[in-house]
Automatic annotation (TrEMBL):
This is ATP-binding cassette domain-containing protein. The keyword Ribonucleoprotein does not apply. SMART domains: AAA. It is a peripheral membrane protein. Pfam families: ABC_tran (PF00005). NCBIfam families: ntrCD. Residues 266-279, 291-302 have a biased composition (Basic and acidic residues). One of its GO terms (molecular function) is ATP binding.
Length: 302
Protein backbone atom coordinates (compact mmCIF):
# COMPACT_ATOMS: atom_id res chain seq x y z
CA UNK A 1 0.00 0.00 0.00
CA UNK A 2 1.39 3.42 -0.88
CA UNK A 3 2.02 5.91 1.89
CA UNK A 4 -0.51 8.69 2.40
CA UNK A 5 0.44 12.36 1.97
CA UNK A 6 0.54 12.81 5.73
CA UNK A 7 1.54 9.86 7.78
CA UNK A 8 1.40 9.76 11.57
CA UNK A 9 3.41 6.81 12.78
CA UNK A 10 3.42 5.36 16.29
CA UNK A 11 3.01 8.70 17.98
CA UNK A 12 3.36 8.66 21.75
CA UNK A 13 3.10 11.64 24.05
CA UNK A 14 3.87 11.53 27.76
CA UNK A 15 4.03 14.49 30.14
CA UNK A 16 5.04 14.75 33.79
CA UNK A 17 1.75 14.59 35.71
CA UNK A 18 2.82 17.18 38.25
CA UNK A 19 2.86 14.62 41.09
CA UNK A 20 6.13 12.93 40.29
CA UNK A 21 4.53 10.46 37.85
CA UNK A 22 3.87 10.34 34.12
CA UNK A 23 0.74 11.07 32.15
CA UNK A 24 0.48 9.13 28.90
CA UNK A 25 -1.80 11.20 26.68
CA UNK A 26 -1.68 8.70 23.79
CA UNK A 27 0.54 5.81 22.80
CA UNK A 28 1.47 4.40 19.37
CA UNK A 29 -1.24 6.35 17.57
CA UNK A 30 -1.01 5.91 13.79
CA UNK A 31 -3.15 7.28 11.00
CA UNK A 32 -2.82 8.79 7.56
CA UNK A 33 -4.35 11.68 5.63
CA UNK A 34 -4.55 11.77 1.84
CA UNK A 35 -3.73 14.80 -0.27
CA UNK A 36 -6.67 17.18 -0.60
CA UNK A 37 -8.64 15.57 2.23
CA UNK A 38 -10.53 17.59 4.82
CA UNK A 39 -10.27 15.73 8.11
CA UNK A 40 -11.85 16.78 11.41
CA UNK A 41 -10.93 15.36 14.79
CA UNK A 42 -13.50 15.12 17.57
CA UNK A 43 -12.91 14.14 21.18
CA UNK A 44 -13.52 15.34 24.70
CA UNK A 45 -11.49 18.07 26.31
CA UNK A 46 -8.06 16.85 27.38
CA UNK A 47 -7.85 13.79 25.12
CA UNK A 48 -4.89 15.21 23.23
CA UNK A 49 -6.22 16.89 20.06
CA UNK A 50 -4.15 20.07 20.45
CA UNK A 51 -1.10 18.00 21.32
CA UNK A 52 -1.47 16.12 18.01
CA UNK A 53 -1.98 19.38 16.14
CA UNK A 54 1.09 21.00 17.68
CA UNK A 55 3.15 17.98 16.66
CA UNK A 56 1.78 18.12 13.08
CA UNK A 57 2.60 21.84 12.98
CA UNK A 58 6.15 21.12 14.14
CA UNK A 59 5.60 23.30 17.21
CA UNK A 60 6.07 20.39 19.62
CA UNK A 61 8.01 17.15 19.58
CA UNK A 62 6.35 13.88 20.55
CA UNK A 63 7.89 11.60 23.16
CA UNK A 64 8.31 9.08 20.35
CA UNK A 65 7.02 8.39 16.86
CA UNK A 66 7.20 10.43 13.68
CA UNK A 67 5.07 12.51 11.36
CA UNK A 68 5.93 12.49 7.68
CA UNK A 69 4.59 14.85 5.07
CA UNK A 70 5.30 13.92 1.45
CA UNK A 71 7.67 11.31 2.84
CA UNK A 72 9.76 13.84 4.79
CA UNK A 73 9.86 13.93 8.55
CA UNK A 74 8.25 16.98 10.15
CA UNK A 75 10.89 18.69 12.28
CA UNK A 76 10.05 22.24 13.30
CA UNK A 77 7.58 24.71 11.81
CA UNK A 78 7.48 25.41 8.08
CA UNK A 79 5.59 27.58 5.60
CA UNK A 80 4.33 24.33 4.11
CA UNK A 81 2.09 24.02 7.14
CA UNK A 82 -0.29 26.86 7.96
CA UNK A 83 -1.93 27.09 11.36
CA UNK A 84 -5.10 28.93 12.38
CA UNK A 85 -5.81 29.10 16.10
CA UNK A 86 -8.95 30.14 17.92
CA UNK A 87 -7.34 33.34 19.14
CA UNK A 88 -6.62 34.66 15.63
CA UNK A 89 -2.90 35.39 16.18
CA UNK A 90 -2.88 38.42 13.89
CA UNK A 91 -0.18 41.07 14.20
CA UNK A 92 -1.98 43.88 16.05
CA UNK A 93 0.15 46.74 14.67
CA UNK A 94 -0.53 45.89 11.02
CA UNK A 95 -3.68 46.53 9.01
CA UNK A 96 -5.82 43.64 7.82
CA UNK A 97 -4.32 43.85 4.34
CA UNK A 98 -0.75 44.08 5.67
CA UNK A 99 -1.32 41.07 7.90
CA UNK A 100 -2.04 39.00 4.78
CA UNK A 101 0.71 40.66 2.72
CA UNK A 102 3.22 39.87 5.46
CA UNK A 103 2.60 36.14 5.07
CA UNK A 104 2.51 36.18 1.26
CA UNK A 105 5.84 38.08 1.11
CA UNK A 106 7.47 35.49 3.32
CA UNK A 107 6.11 32.67 1.20
CA UNK A 108 6.89 34.24 -2.19
CA UNK A 109 9.88 36.52 -1.65
CA UNK A 110 10.44 36.89 -5.42
CA UNK A 111 7.02 38.27 -6.24
CA UNK A 112 6.79 41.98 -7.09
CA UNK A 113 4.91 44.22 -4.64
CA UNK A 114 1.78 44.69 -6.71
CA UNK A 115 1.43 40.96 -7.31
CA UNK A 116 1.72 40.32 -3.58
CA UNK A 117 -0.89 42.96 -2.80
CA UNK A 118 -3.33 41.77 -5.49
CA UNK A 119 -2.99 38.21 -4.21
CA UNK A 120 -3.65 39.30 -0.61
CA UNK A 121 -6.69 41.37 -1.65
CA UNK A 122 -8.01 38.48 -3.68
CA UNK A 123 -7.94 36.13 -0.68
CA UNK A 124 -9.50 38.74 1.61
CA UNK A 125 -12.30 39.18 -0.94
CA UNK A 126 -12.90 35.42 -0.92
CA UNK A 127 -13.88 35.71 2.75
CA UNK A 128 -15.96 38.83 2.18
CA UNK A 129 -13.43 41.49 3.23
CA UNK A 130 -13.23 44.23 0.63
CA UNK A 131 -13.04 48.00 0.49
CA UNK A 132 -12.00 50.22 3.39
CA UNK A 133 -12.19 47.45 5.93
CA UNK A 134 -8.87 46.01 4.72
CA UNK A 135 -7.08 49.06 6.12
CA UNK A 136 -8.40 48.55 9.63
CA UNK A 137 -6.22 47.12 12.38
CA UNK A 138 -7.29 43.82 14.00
CA UNK A 139 -8.48 45.68 17.14
CA UNK A 140 -10.99 47.56 14.96
CA UNK A 141 -12.54 44.36 13.61
CA UNK A 142 -15.19 42.08 15.06
CA UNK A 143 -14.22 38.57 16.20
CA UNK A 144 -15.75 37.06 13.07
CA UNK A 145 -13.85 39.46 10.80
CA UNK A 146 -10.58 38.71 12.57
CA UNK A 147 -11.10 35.02 12.06
CA UNK A 148 -11.82 35.66 8.37
CA UNK A 149 -8.48 37.47 8.11
CA UNK A 150 -6.71 34.50 9.73
CA UNK A 151 -8.32 32.11 7.26
CA UNK A 152 -7.53 34.35 4.26
CA UNK A 153 -3.94 34.68 5.45
CA UNK A 154 -3.55 30.93 5.87
CA UNK A 155 -5.02 30.04 2.45
CA UNK A 156 -3.19 32.86 0.64
CA UNK A 157 0.08 31.20 1.56
CA UNK A 158 -0.92 27.96 -0.19
CA UNK A 159 0.39 25.70 2.53
CA UNK A 160 0.43 22.01 1.67
CA UNK A 161 -1.29 21.33 4.96
CA UNK A 162 -3.64 23.62 6.81
CA UNK A 163 -4.11 23.03 10.52
CA UNK A 164 -7.18 24.60 12.10
CA UNK A 165 -7.48 24.48 15.89
CA UNK A 166 -11.12 25.24 16.72
CA UNK A 167 -11.08 28.28 14.48
CA UNK A 168 -14.73 29.13 15.08
CA UNK A 169 -14.88 28.27 18.79
CA UNK A 170 -15.30 31.86 19.93
CA UNK A 171 -17.89 32.93 17.35
CA UNK A 172 -21.65 33.19 17.60
CA UNK A 173 -23.69 30.62 15.66
CA UNK A 174 -24.67 32.93 12.79
CA UNK A 175 -21.18 34.22 12.12
CA UNK A 176 -19.86 30.71 12.47
CA UNK A 177 -22.26 29.48 9.79
CA UNK A 178 -21.23 32.18 7.33
CA UNK A 179 -17.53 31.56 7.85
CA UNK A 180 -17.97 27.79 7.54
CA UNK A 181 -19.51 28.43 4.11
CA UNK A 182 -16.62 30.70 3.18
CA UNK A 183 -14.13 28.11 4.37
CA UNK A 184 -15.78 25.46 2.19
CA UNK A 185 -15.73 27.78 -0.80
CA UNK A 186 -12.10 28.75 -0.39
CA UNK A 187 -11.03 25.13 0.24
CA UNK A 188 -13.16 23.78 -2.65
CA UNK A 189 -11.06 25.66 -5.18
CA UNK A 190 -7.76 24.21 -3.96
CA UNK A 191 -5.95 20.93 -3.52
CA UNK A 192 -5.27 21.81 0.08
CA UNK A 193 -5.25 19.23 2.81
CA UNK A 194 -6.97 20.35 6.00
CA UNK A 195 -6.81 18.93 9.53
CA UNK A 196 -9.23 20.62 11.89
CA UNK A 197 -10.10 20.33 15.57
CA UNK A 198 -13.69 21.11 16.46
CA UNK A 199 -16.12 20.38 19.28
CA UNK A 200 -19.12 20.85 17.01
CA UNK A 201 -20.51 17.65 15.50
CA UNK A 202 -22.64 19.40 12.88
CA UNK A 203 -19.72 21.55 11.80
CA UNK A 204 -17.58 18.44 11.39
CA UNK A 205 -20.22 16.67 9.25
CA UNK A 206 -20.68 19.74 7.07
CA UNK A 207 -16.98 20.23 6.43
CA UNK A 208 -15.19 16.90 6.61
CA UNK A 209 -14.47 14.03 4.25
CA UNK A 210 -13.61 12.01 7.32
CA UNK A 211 -13.99 12.45 11.06
CA UNK A 212 -11.47 10.94 13.46
CA UNK A 213 -12.95 10.05 16.83
CA UNK A 214 -10.77 10.03 19.93
CA UNK A 215 -11.49 8.22 23.17
CA UNK A 216 -10.93 9.98 26.48
CA UNK A 217 -7.46 9.88 27.97
CA UNK A 218 -5.18 8.90 29.47
CA UNK A 219 -4.09 6.39 26.81
CA UNK A 220 -6.48 8.10 24.41
CA UNK A 221 -6.85 6.45 21.03
CA UNK A 222 -7.96 7.61 17.61
CA UNK A 223 -10.48 4.79 17.67
CA UNK A 224 -12.52 5.40 14.53
CA UNK A 225 -12.31 7.09 11.19
CA UNK A 226 -15.86 7.85 10.08
CA UNK A 227 -16.32 8.58 6.39
CA UNK A 228 -18.82 11.31 5.63
CA UNK A 229 -20.72 9.72 2.80
CA UNK A 230 -22.59 12.86 1.76
CA UNK A 231 -21.72 14.33 -1.63
CA UNK A 232 -20.33 17.83 -2.13
CA UNK A 233 -21.07 20.61 -2.60
CA UNK A 234 -22.84 20.60 0.75
CA UNK A 235 -24.78 23.33 2.41
CA UNK A 236 -26.15 23.62 5.90
CA UNK A 237 -29.83 23.54 5.02
CA UNK A 238 -29.77 20.75 2.48
CA UNK A 239 -27.31 18.45 4.20
CA UNK A 240 -29.81 17.47 6.91
CA UNK A 241 -32.12 16.06 4.22
CA UNK A 242 -29.54 13.53 3.10
CA UNK A 243 -30.45 9.96 4.18
CA UNK A 244 -27.02 9.43 5.77
CA UNK A 245 -27.02 12.63 7.83
CA UNK A 246 -28.79 11.56 11.00
CA UNK A 247 -27.34 8.07 10.95
CA UNK A 248 -23.84 9.51 10.87
CA UNK A 249 -24.77 12.14 13.45
CA UNK A 250 -26.24 9.55 15.82
CA UNK A 251 -23.14 7.42 15.47
CA UNK A 252 -20.93 10.37 16.43
CA UNK A 253 -23.17 11.43 19.32
CA UNK A 254 -23.22 7.90 20.64
CA UNK A 255 -19.44 7.62 20.43
CA UNK A 256 -18.83 10.90 22.23
CA UNK A 257 -21.62 10.42 24.75
CA UNK A 258 -20.85 6.86 25.69
CA UNK A 259 -18.18 4.83 23.97
CA UNK A 260 -15.40 7.43 24.30
CA UNK A 261 -15.85 7.15 28.08
CA UNK A 262 -16.19 3.37 28.17
CA UNK A 263 -12.91 3.04 26.29
CA UNK A 264 -11.17 5.71 28.41
CA UNK A 265 -7.89 4.64 29.92
CA UNK A 266 -7.97 1.32 28.03
CA UNK A 267 -4.39 0.48 27.21
CA UNK A 268 -4.19 -1.57 24.06
CA UNK A 269 -0.92 -3.32 23.39
CA UNK A 270 0.34 -2.78 19.90
CA UNK A 271 3.02 -1.03 17.98
CA UNK A 272 0.80 0.64 15.47
CA UNK A 273 -2.73 1.42 16.66
CA UNK A 274 -4.85 2.47 13.72
CA UNK A 275 -8.44 3.68 13.74
CA UNK A 276 -11.19 1.45 12.44
CA UNK A 277 -12.83 2.76 9.27
CA UNK A 278 -16.57 3.26 9.56
CA UNK A 279 -18.71 3.69 6.47
CA UNK A 280 -22.35 4.49 6.89
CA UNK A 281 -24.32 4.44 3.69
CA UNK A 282 -28.09 4.24 3.86
CA UNK A 283 -28.43 4.62 0.14
CA UNK A 284 -26.16 1.66 -0.62
CA UNK A 285 -27.84 -0.71 1.84
CA UNK A 286 -31.36 0.32 2.79
CA UNK A 287 -32.95 -0.97 6.01
CA UNK A 288 -34.35 -4.48 5.57
CA UNK A 289 -37.59 -6.02 6.77
CA UNK A 290 -35.82 -7.96 9.52
CA UNK A 291 -34.03 -4.88 10.57
CA UNK A 292 -36.31 -1.95 9.78
CA UNK A 293 -35.02 0.72 12.10
CA UNK A 294 -31.46 -0.26 12.82
CA UNK A 295 -29.38 1.49 10.20
CA UNK A 296 -26.82 -0.72 8.53
CA UNK A 297 -23.35 0.15 9.63
CA UNK A 298 -20.31 -1.39 8.18
CA UNK A 299 -17.03 -1.19 9.94
CA UNK A 300 -14.03 -2.09 7.86
CA UNK A 301 -10.63 -2.71 9.29
CA UNK A 302 -7.84 -1.47 7.12
N1 LIG B 1 3.04 20.87 28.36
C1 LIG B 1 2.26 20.03 29.06
N2 LIG B 1 2.67 19.54 30.24
C2 LIG B 1 1.92 18.67 30.96
N3 LIG B 1 0.71 18.22 30.54
C3 LIG B 1 0.25 18.68 29.37
C4 LIG B 1 0.99 19.61 28.56
N4 LIG B 1 0.27 19.88 27.44
C5 LIG B 1 -0.87 19.16 27.55
N5 LIG B 1 -0.89 18.44 28.69
C6 LIG B 1 -1.93 17.48 29.11
O1 LIG B 1 -2.14 16.60 28.02
C7 LIG B 1 -3.51 16.27 27.87
C8 LIG B 1 -3.97 16.61 26.47
O2 LIG B 1 -4.01 18.03 26.30
P1 LIG B 1 -4.53 18.71 24.94
O3 LIG B 1 -4.46 20.18 25.11
O4 LIG B 1 -3.83 18.12 23.79
O5 LIG B 1 -6.07 18.25 24.93
P2 LIG B 1 -7.25 18.67 23.94
O6 LIG B 1 -7.91 17.42 23.53
O7 LIG B 1 -6.73 19.55 22.87
O8 LIG B 1 -8.19 19.50 24.93
P3 LIG B 1 -9.20 20.73 24.61
O9 LIG B 1 -10.28 20.17 23.77
O10 LIG B 1 -9.67 21.12 25.97
O11 LIG B 1 -8.38 21.79 23.94
C9 LIG B 1 -4.23 17.04 29.00
O12 LIG B 1 -4.42 16.17 30.08
C10 LIG B 1 -3.27 18.14 29.34
O13 LIG B 1 -3.42 18.51 30.68
Amino acid sequence: MSKPFLSIERLTQRFPDGQGGTLTVFENASFGIEKGEFVCILGHSGCGKSTIMNILAGLAEPTSGVVKMDGLEVAGPSLDRGVVFQNYSLLPWLSTLKNVIFGVKARYPDWPRDKVEAHARDYLAKVGLEGDVVHRKPSQLSGGMRQRVSIARAFANHPKLLLLDEPFGALDALTRGTIQDELLKIWGGTEQTVFMITHDIDEAILLADRILLMTNGPYARVAESVEISIPRPRNRTEIVEHPNYYTIRNHLVQFLGQRSKEMAGERIEGEDLRPETVRIDQAAAPATEDNPDKPPLRAVNE
